[in-house]
Amino acid sequence: MTAGGYEDIGHARVDVDRLRRQGMAEAVYGEGKTAEQIVEILRVLKAHGQLPALATRLDAAKAAAVGAALGAEFEYFPAARLGRLGKARTDDGAGTVVVAAAGTSDLPVAEEAAITAETLGNRVVRLADVGVAGIHRLLAERAALEEASVLVVVAGMEGALASVAGGLAACPVVAVPTGVGYGAAFEGLAALLGMLNSCAAGVAVVNIDNGFGAGVLAHRINHVGRNK
Amino acid sequence: MTAGGYEDIGHARVDVDRLRRQGMAEAVYGEGKTAEQIVEILRVLKAHGQLPALATRLDAAKAAAVGAALGAEFEYFPAARLGRLGKARTDDGAGTVVVAAAGTSDLPVAEEAAITAETLGNRVVRLADVGVAGIHRLLAERAALEEASVLVVVAGMEGALASVAGGLAACPVVAVPTGVGYGAAFEGLAALLGMLNSCAAGVAVVNIDNGFGAGVLAHRINHVGRNK
Amino acid sequence: MTAGGYEDIGHARVDVDRLRRQGMAEAVYGEGKTAEQIVEILRVLKAHGQLPALATRLDAAKAAAVGAALGAEFEYFPAARLGRLGKARTDDGAGTVVVAAAGTSDLPVAEEAAITAETLGNRVVRLADVGVAGIHRLLAERAALEEASVLVVVAGMEGALASVAGGLAACPVVAVPTGVGYGAAFEGLAALLGMLNSCAAGVAVVNIDNGFGAGVLAHRINHVGRNK
Amino acid sequence: MTAGGYEDIGHARVDVDRLRRQGMAEAVYGEGKTAEQIVEILRVLKAHGQLPALATRLDAAKAAAVGAALGAEFEYFPAARLGRLGKARTDDGAGTVVVAAAGTSDLPVAEEAAITAETLGNRVVRLADVGVAGIHRLLAERAALEEASVLVVVAGMEGALASVAGGLAACPVVAVPTGVGYGAAFEGLAALLGMLNSCAAGVAVVNIDNGFGAGVLAHRINHVGRNK
Amino acid sequence: MTAGGYEDIGHARVDVDRLRRQGMAEAVYGEGKTAEQIVEILRVLKAHGQLPALATRLDAAKAAAVGAALGAEFEYFPAARLGRLGKARTDDGAGTVVVAAAGTSDLPVAEEAAITAETLGNRVVRLADVGVAGIHRLLAERAALEEASVLVVVAGMEGALASVAGGLAACPVVAVPTGVGYGAAFEGLAALLGMLNSCAAGVAVVNIDNGFGAGVLAHRINHVGRNK
Amino acid sequence: MTAGGYEDIGHARVDVDRLRRQGMAEAVYGEGKTAEQIVEILRVLKAHGQLPALATRLDAAKAAAVGAALGAEFEYFPAARLGRLGKARTDDGAGTVVVAAAGTSDLPVAEEAAITAETLGNRVVRLADVGVAGIHRLLAERAALEEASVLVVVAGMEGALASVAGGLAACPVVAVPTGVGYGAAFEGLAALLGMLNSCAAGVAVVNIDNGFGAGVLAHRINHVGRNK
Amino acid sequence: MTAGGYEDIGHARVDVDRLRRQGMAEAVYGEGKTAEQIVEILRVLKAHGQLPALATRLDAAKAAAVGAALGAEFEYFPAARLGRLGKARTDDGAGTVVVAAAGTSDLPVAEEAAITAETLGNRVVRLADVGVAGIHRLLAERAALEEASVLVVVAGMEGALASVAGGLAACPVVAVPTGVGYGAAFEGLAALLGMLNSCAAGVAVVNIDNGFGAGVLAHRINHVGRNK
Amino acid sequence: MTAGGYEDIGHARVDVDRLRRQGMAEAVYGEGKTAEQIVEILRVLKAHGQLPALATRLDAAKAAAVGAALGAEFEYFPAARLGRLGKARTDDGAGTVVVAAAGTSDLPVAEEAAITAETLGNRVVRLADVGVAGIHRLLAERAALEEASVLVVVAGMEGALASVAGGLAACPVVAVPTGVGYGAAFEGLAALLGMLNSCAAGVAVVNIDNGFGAGVLAHRINHVGRNK
Q1: Is F180 helix (H, G, I), strand (E, B) or coil?
Q2: What are the 10-residue block averages of pLDDT along chain B, 228 residues in total?
Q3: Mean pLDDT computed over every residue of chain D
Q4: Chain A residues close to G131, C-beta within 8 Å
Q5: A135-194: per-residue pLDDT in tens?
Q6: E186 contacts in D (CB within 8 Å)?
Q7: Minimal Cα–Cα distance from G184 to chain B, Å?
C-alpha cells in the first residue's frame, strides 16, 4: 500500500514522496538494519522511481549481501561506507563543492560527503591534509577556497580548520567534526564545540562524522534557486 | 597604519579587507567591549567603505552611547540587540529567507537573524510561534516553507521544529538553538543536541542563540553563484 | 524461608509479595546474572504463583539455557530480548496502548514495551517508522493516536517524535529515548534531553532503551481505576 | 484570523483548537513574555472558550499586572507561581492524585503540580516532607500511597523518594526532580538521573522543576477512558 | 635498595613502610600490570613482612599465573577479583562491618569490600538483594543495620539504598556506587551523584566499583582508637 | 500530632525520633526555608528534647531573625553559616578529629565541619592553609595527622591534599571538595573527581562544600563502639 | 613563628621559603580573601624579603584598601586585576615572551600574563586581536612569532589561534583559554578542549582565564638554565 | 611536487619545511593510517632530510610492516608505541629533562615522552612510581627535581603528583594526565581537571595520554635560546 506518499512494508514506511517534496530520495540509514531490510527498502524506492538512492554506514559484509541481491545497478564505496542504487546525476549546480579534510584520518568522512554531493549532481573538488599545523598547505589552496560555491570542512581533534578556512572563503561553510583524536577529544566533542564557536561567521555544523548530511546540505546550497 | 589589509588601533586590528574578501564588513562583537571601543572600530570601518557594518550583542545603554557618537547613520534594533552603521543593501538574493521561530520567547534570536540577513541584501519572511506542540500552526505555513530558498529555524527547549520543518522544506535549513527553557534544557544544550541529531537531512546548526551567524549563513546561501 | 514477603535464596531475595502489592510479579533483570540464577528466581516466583513473570535483557544464549531448564512454559521473544514464564493475561485495560517507533532501528525497544504491556493484559497497536522527517507518515496514523488510551513513543537521534505526537494525542504519553544514532547523539542522551524538554505537555520519560519500564507504565495507566 | 485552529496575534499563534483536541487549553509559558503579551493571549483563549487557562512561571510583579488587566476572573497562586483564568473544573477523575514532596524546599514545585491537576478536574491529596532520611514518615502514609490512582513524587537532592514510593504504590508514578540541593546536585541533575534509573518499575520522569507537566500528566492518567 | 622506606625494583617503588605507617600493607593495583610485575611486588612485600597483602582487579588468568609462582600462600577470590598473599588477620575490631548489596549484580563489588575487610581483621555480615524497590526486604534486616559498627552500602542504578539505609543506621555509612544499570546510569554516574547528595547525614562515598577502598575504610573506622 | 515518631506541622514532618535512632537530632537545612519555618521546626525539636540541634546554610539575616525568636539558647556561627539551639555536648569520642583546610578560602567549609563535630561531642584540632603547593607546611603537622582518630580534609581546586594526607594518616579520611577555584574547577567538580580517585586508600568523599556532612561522619567514626 | 619555612598567621601559613625554592615569592590568590588578610600576607612576605609579590584576581575596591594600607610600594593593574608589592625585576631572560590575544575581549587575561612575566624579569611583546578569522593579521606578525623564546596564546571561543600559531612558532607555546564567547563556548570549555587537542605539537594549556599561571610558566621557560 | 614547502602524495601533504621552520620533522600520527601510508610518508620525509622522524600510536603489527619496508634505519619502541626513522640527535639541551611517572601503569605514556625528548636531543632521567600515596618515595628524589631544567609529570587517577612536584621544582612543569584508573576517573578526565587546577604555579597540561606532545614541549623548553 502506498497511501499518503509512503509504502508500508512492516518494518519501514518508505517515503516515496521525498523526491518530489525535497528533490532527492530517502536515504537508508544502514546501521541497525539487516541486509534484507536494506534490500527491501531500496527495491521499493526503485519501484517508485526514487533513484539514485543512498544507503549510509554500510559495512563491507552488508554491502556485499545487498549487492548480490540488487545486481550491477548497486555500487559500493568502501572508503565512504556508502552504497548507491542508480547512477549519479549530472552536475547542474551553481558552482563547485570543495571538500577539505584536515588530516589523512578524516578522509573517510570527507569521502562520504563528496560522493553524496556527486550523486546528487554536483562537481566536487577534494583537498586532503590541509590542517592548520602547517598553514602553508592550506594557503596554497587559497584559489580553490575562493572559487568554491560551498566549502565542506572535515576535521577532528580541535577542528580549527573550520575557522581558518571560514575566514578565507566567501561562500557558505559546512563544518563536519570527526571522531579523530583521543583523550580530551572525547570522540569528536572537542571538534564539535570548536566549530560551533568558530570566530568566523558563515559556518554551520553537522553531527560528528556526518559526511552524508554535509553532502546533502552542500548539494542544496549549490542548487539554491535552481532545480529543486 | 593599514598594512596588510587591517588597521591597528591598539585594542583591535580592524579587518578592512573583509568586504572584498568575503562580501561583507567585519562585524563588531559587542560583548566585553566599551562603547568607545565600538565607536572607534565602526569609524575605521566607515573610513574604509566597509558599510553596512553590524555590532552584535549590544545592550541599550551601550547602543545609546554609540548612537550619540555616530549620529543618524547608526541605527539600533533593540529586540535583536543589533546596531548598524549604514543602510541595509537592496535585496539581490536568489529567493526568500524564511525565519521561523518556535515560540514567542525565541523571537529576539530570530530577529537578530532576520535583520542580519536584511542588512546584507535579502528578502526575509518571518514566521512566529510555529512550534510543534500544535503542528497545524506549522502546516498552515507549508507554502512559505516550500518556497523558501533558505530556512532559518529558531527554537529552544527540545528544538524539534528543525526536524519537522527540515522534513518539509527542500531548501537548506539553518537551525539556531536558543537558551529558552529550564532544567534539563541546560541553557540550550538540549536544543543544540536535538538539532545536531536531526533525522531530517540538510540541516546545519550554529551556536546557541547565534542569530547573527544564522543570518550571515542564510545570506551566503541565498547568494551562491551571485555577487560574492 | 519466606518471612516478610520475600524468599531468600542467597544471591537474591525474591519479592513474592509484589503481585499482591503492585499487581504484577517482580521482573528479573537479566544482565549480570547467570542463567542458573535466573532459573532459580523464576522457579521461586512460580512456586508462589507470581506469574506471568518476565526476565529482561536476556541474550539468546542465556534464554536457551533458561528455556531448557524451565520447559514449554517459558517463552523467549528475541527481538525484545524478553523471556516470559507463564501466559500473557487477558486484556482488561481501559483502551488501547499504542506503541509508536520513529525508525526501524528503534523496533527492538518498542517490541520490549509492547510485549511487556501485552503480558500484563493490554491490547497493543504497533506503529513502525513514523519519524518526523516525513511527517505525512505520522499524520496518516492520526486516528490511532487520537483513540489511544496510552501512547508509548520510542525514538532515538533527536527524539522529536515525542513532541509532535504529544501535541496530537490527548492521552498520557510515555517517551522512551533509544541509543539509536551516533556522534552527538551520545548514546541516547540527545533523545533523552529532547524528550524531557518536550514543548508538548503530558509527556513523561523513562530511561534510555527502557522498553520494559514503558510497558509497565503503560499498563498501569491503562488500568487506573480498574483491577490493580 | 483564526484559520486552521489558531489565532495569529503577531507575537503568538494562539492554539484555539487545543481544548477540543487535547481536552485542555493551551498553557502560557510565562518566562520571557511581557505581562501585555500574556494578557493578550489569555484574552484570545477566553474569547474562544478555552478556559480554564493557566500561565506558568509567573512572578508576582507580572501576575499583578495581568490581574489588573483581567480582573477577578484571574487568580494567582504565588507559591506555585501559577496564574489561572477561569475556575477549576469539578473533579471527575478515576480516583485521587497524591502529590508527595520529599522536603519543605520542594513544596513550590509540588504546589504547581497540585494546582494544575485541581484546575483540570482532579481531587488532590498533598503529602509534605516525606523524604527517605526518616522513612517512618513515608511508611505512615502507606494507605494514601496504596489508594492513589496516580502518584506524583517531587524531590531534589538524590531523589530517592521516587524509588521507595514507586516500590510501594501500584499506580503510575510521575517523578519530578527539583533543583533543591547544592554542589554535586548540579541543579537537579542528580535527582533527574536518580529518578530515570529508578529500580522500581512504573516510574516516569518529567523535566527538572516541571510541576506543571506532572500535573497535566497526572490529570490525563486519572482520566484515561473517561472524558477526553 | 630500600632507602627511605621503599624498595626500588625498576617498574615500582614498593612501599615497605606502609604497615608501620598505616597499619596495612600496600595493595597492588592489578590493572595494567603483568603477572610477573605483580609477583615481584608481592615477593618484596613478603620479604619485608608486609602481609597479608592484596592484589586488586585481578582477572582469572593473571591470578593463575601469580598463584603458580607464589604457591599455596596465595589465595584467589574470583567473585571479588582479589588475590591475597598471607592469611587474613584475626578479628579485632570494635564491632561488625555490615556489607549490604542492593541487587544480585552488585555482589562482586560487595564481595571485594567484604574480603578486604575480613583480610584486615574484621567480622563481616553480608546482606544481599536489599534494594529499595521492595523495601520490606531491607526493613527485615533492621536489627543488623542497627547493630553494625560500620555499614557499607553497594548499589548501582539510582543508588537509593544509601539514603534509606543511612536514615536507619546510627553508624558511619560508606556508600559504593556500582556500574550496574544502563542508559542514563552512565556507568555508575547516576548512583555516584545520588549517593553524594544523600539526604541522610553520615554517608560518605568512594569511587564507582571501588569495593576495595570501601573495605579499607570500613576497617579503619572499625579500628578507631584500637590497634592502628 | 506526633504519631509514628514525627510531628507534622504542615510544611514539615519533624523527625522527633532521630536522637534515639541515630544519636543526634535532625538538622534543619536552612536554604529555601523562611526564618519562621526554621523557628517552628527548632521549637518542635526542643519540645521533644532533641538538642543540640543545628540549622545549616543560614545567612546572617535569617540567623538574626531566628535568634530574635529563640533567645540566648540559640547561637550563630557566621563563618560556618551554622545556627545551633542548645549547648555542644561534652567530648566523649575515641580521640581527636583533625580538620585540615588546604587554603584560606576553604576555611568556611572547614569551620562548618569543625563546629558540627564539636557540637556532637568531639575534640577538634584545626589546621589551616596546609595545601600541597608548599608541602613542608603539611609535613610540619605530621604528628597531628598521625595522632588523629579521624581526619577531615577540606580542599578546592584540584583537591590533592586528600591524597597526600591520606597517604600519611592511618585513620579514616573524610574528604570535602569545595567550590574554591575558577575555570576548569567547575565549581568543585575537579576537586570532587580528584578526591574520588585518590590513589591513597581509606579516603571517602562527601558532597561539594558539605562541611556539615563531614562533621557528622567524623563524629560517628569517632564514636564507633561507644555511645551511639 | 616561622618554623619550617613558613609563617603561621592563623588564617594562612605564608610560604617564606618559596623565593629560595622556586625563584619567586608565593602569590596571593585574592578571591575569597578580605583586604585585611591580603595586607597581612603581603606584609609577611615583605618582612622576609619575598618581593616582588603579586596578588591576583583583585577587584578595584579591594585593591584600593590594600593600597591604602601598604602605600606607594603597592601598585595596581586594573586591566589585569593584579596587585604588586615591590618593583618588577630587570629582564634577564633568554629572549622575548610574546603574548598574543585573539580578540579585544581576551585582553584582560593577556594583560595578566604579560604583567606577571614582566614582574618576574622578562621582556614582553604584546600582540592584540590576531584571531584566525582574518589570518592576514596573524601572518603579518610572523617575524614576532619566529623570534619569540616563549609564545603565550590567549583565546576564547574555539581557541583556534593556539593551533595556527603553534604551527608557525618554533618555541614552546603556552595556551590560555578564556571565557569569552557564549552558548556552546560553555564558559571556556570549548577553547580549553580545542587547545588540549591542538594538532600542532609543543602546545601546553593552563586553566581557563589563568593569565597568571601562563605568565609564571613563560617566565620559567624563558629562564631555563639561567637564574632559577 | 613540493611546491610551497610540502609534498602532495594524495592522502597526505607531507610538510617538508617543518625541520627548518620548527626545528623538528613532522611526526606521523599512526592511528587511522595504514602501514603503507606511514611508509610512504616516512620515505618522503627521509628524501627531504627530515630526520629523525617519529610515528606515534603505532601498534606492533603496523610497526613490523613498517620496519619490513624501511629496514634497519627504522626502530620500534614497543612500550611507547613509537617508531623512529633515523638516529636520535646528540644531547644539546640546557639541562636534564626529568620524566616522573606516578604509577607502574603510567609507564607507557612516560616512555613515549622520554623517547621523544631523547630523539630530539635531550638528556632524560626517568623516575618511576613516585605517586603521592607514599610521599617519601617522591621526597627521596628531591635532588633530581631541583636539578631538572624541565619536569614532565605523568599521572592518572587524581593526578596529584603534578601539584606536589610542581610545588617542589623551580623549573617548568609539563603535566600529562593518563587514562589510568576506573569509575569516576572517566578515562583521564579526573587527572586532566586536577592538573589544570593545580594549586602550584608553573604547571601546564597536555592532552590525556599525550606523551609525545609532552616530549616535544620538554625539548623546546630545554632548548630555549639555543638551536631552534
Answers
A1: coil
A2: 80 94 95 95 97 98 98 97 98 97 96 98 97 94 96 97 96 98 97 96 96 98 82
A3: 95
A4: 199
A5: 999 999 999 999 999 999 999 999 999 999 999 999 999 999 999 999 999 999 999 999
A6: 193
A7: 6
CB atoms within 10 A of CB F47: 12
pLDDT tier for residue H45 given thresholds of 50, 70 and 90: very high
Please say if the pLDDT value at position C1 is more than 80: no
A chain contacts of residue G198, beta-carbon cutoff 8 Å? 133, 157-158, 160
- From B190's Cα to the closest Cα of chain C, the distance in A is 5
Chain C residues inside the 8 Å CB shell of E184:
188-189, 192, 207-208
Give the model confidence (pLDDT) of C4-45 as tens digits.
799 999 999 999 999 999 999 999 999 989 999 999 999 999
Q: What is the pLDDT of residues F36-65, one digit of tens each?
A: 999 999 999 999 999 999 999 999 999 999
What is the pLDDT at residue D226? 79
Q: What angle do CA H95, H101, H104 make, to 5 degrees?
A: 145
Question: Which of E105, E139, E183 comes nearest C32 by C-beta?
Answer: E105
CB-based contact H158 F103, cutoff 8 Å? no
Going by pLDDT thresholds of 50, 70 and 90, the confidence category of residue D61 is: very high
Q: What does the pLDDT read at residue E58?
A: 97
- Cβ neighbours of E134 in C, within 8 Å: 5-6, 13, 15, 17-18, 26
pLDDT at D2: 57
How far apart (Å, rounded) are the C-alpha atoms in residues B48 and A12?
A: 59
Does residue H228 surpass a pLDDT of 50? no
Q: Which residue has the higher pLDDT, C228 or D47?
A: D47
CB pairs under 8 A between C and E: 63
Q: Does H165 touch chain G (CB under 8 A)?
A: no
Determine whether the interchain pair B12/G104 forms a contact, defined as Cβ–Cβ distance below 8 Å. Answer: yes
**Chains F+H touching (3+ CB pairs under 8 Å):** yes
Residue of B nearest to C179 (CA): B197
DSSP state of F128: -
Pick from F17, F25, F28: which is nearest to F58 by CA? F28
Give the cell for residue G182: 557564549
Chain F residues with CB inside 8 Å of G36's CB?
Answer: none
Average pLDDT over chain C reads 95
Decide if F5 and D136 are in contact by the 8 Å CB cutoff: yes
What's residue F1's pLDDT?
A: 44
**Cβ-Cβ contacts under 8 Å, G164 against chain A:** 132, 135, 160, 164
F residues 55-114 lying closer than 8 A (beta carbon) to G:
103-105, 107
DSSP string, G136-170: HHHHTTHHHHHH-SEEEEEE-TT-THHHHHHHH-S
Q: Which residue of F has its CA nearest to G208?
A: F183
pLDDT at B226: 79
Touching check for C140 and chain A: CB below 8 Å?
Answer: yes
Ordered DSSP codes for chain G:
--GGGEEE-SS-EEETTHHHHHSSPPPEE-TT--HHHHHHHHHHHHHTT--SEEEES--HHHHHHHHHHHGGGEEEEGGGTEEEESPPPPP-SSSEEEEEESSGGGHHHHHHHHHHHHHTT-EEEEE-S--GGGTHHHHTTHHHHHH-SEEEEEE-TT-THHHHHHHH-SS-EEEEE---S-GGGGGGHHHHHHHHT-SSSSEEE--TT-HHHHHHHHHHHHTTTS--
Helix or strand (DSSP H, E) at B205: strand B203-205
Q: Which residues pair with B100 in a beta bridge?
A: B127, B153
CB contact under 8 A, A129 and H18: no
Is G29 near chain F, with CB under 8 Å?
yes
Orientation angle between helical segments D60-70 and D35-47, nearest 10 degrees = 40
